[in-house]
Amino acid sequence: MARSIDYGNLMHRAMRGLIQSVLEDVAEHGLPGAHHFFITFDTTCEGVEMADWLRSRYPSEMTIVVQHWFENLEVTDDGFSITLNFGNQPEPLVIPFDAVRTFVDPSVEFGLRFESHSDEDDEEDEEDDGDDDDDPPPSHEAEVVSLDKFRKQ
């Protein structure tokens, strides 16, 4: 098999590193100016820790907003933990970077979307032509997303 450069996986790792750097800066210095984040993550991903009542309310995916009130933001090489307020009830969350699906900062119209293996597998299943060639396994990819759905009406 010929060796090739896996640009999708390299991009995926670079974008996760970008999010890690941004969150490390916020953990150390706080949110600058009007910056705030919408972070959507897969609640079923291994390593996600959240209250049972939140998991039952968001069994597959959840979007958090990091803006006015948050505490205990800690960032590691694998993910981050943060305490957020849900109806005047502070709740700690642990979110591995592998669980993150979108990261958006609407204040500067910046956004990333990460495709998961299951998203790609679903697309491959739909496009399956029955050919059993030895294709390389799908990789994670990152791409910029439209911010229209996050804009205030």
Describe this structure in words.
The protein is built from 3 helices and 8 strands, in the order αβαββββββαβ. It is α+β, with helices and mostly antiparallel strands. The protein has a 5-stranded antiparallel β-sheet with strand order 2-1-6-7-8. It has a 3-stranded antiparallel β-sheet with strand order 3-4-5. A hairpin with a 4-residue loop joins strand 4 (79-85) and strand 5 (90-96). The longest helix is centred in the N-terminal third of the chain and has 23 residues, at 7-29. The protein is globular and about 55 Å long.
Task: Describe this structure in a few short sentences.
With 153 residues, the chain is an alpha+beta fold.
What's the SSE blueprint?
Layout lengths: L6 H23 L7 E6 L9 H6 L3 E6 L3 E6 L3 E7 L4 E7 L3 E6 L4 E6 L1 H11 L13 E3 L10
Strand order of the largest sheet: 2-1-6-7-8
Taking all residues together, what is the mean pLDDT? 80
The end-to-end span amounts to 52 Å
Biggest sheet: strands, sense, closure? Answer: 5 strands, antiparallel
Strand percentage: 25-35%
Count of beta strands: 8
- The percent range for helix content is 25-40%
The radius of gyration computed from the alpha-carbon positions, rounded to a whole number of angstroms, is: 17 Å
Q: Describe the global form.
A: globular
Going by helix content, strand content and strand pairing, the class is alpha+beta
Low-pLDDT sequence parts: 119-146
Alpha plus pi helix count: 3
State the order of secondary-structure elements, H for helix, E for strand. Answer: HEHEEEEEEHE
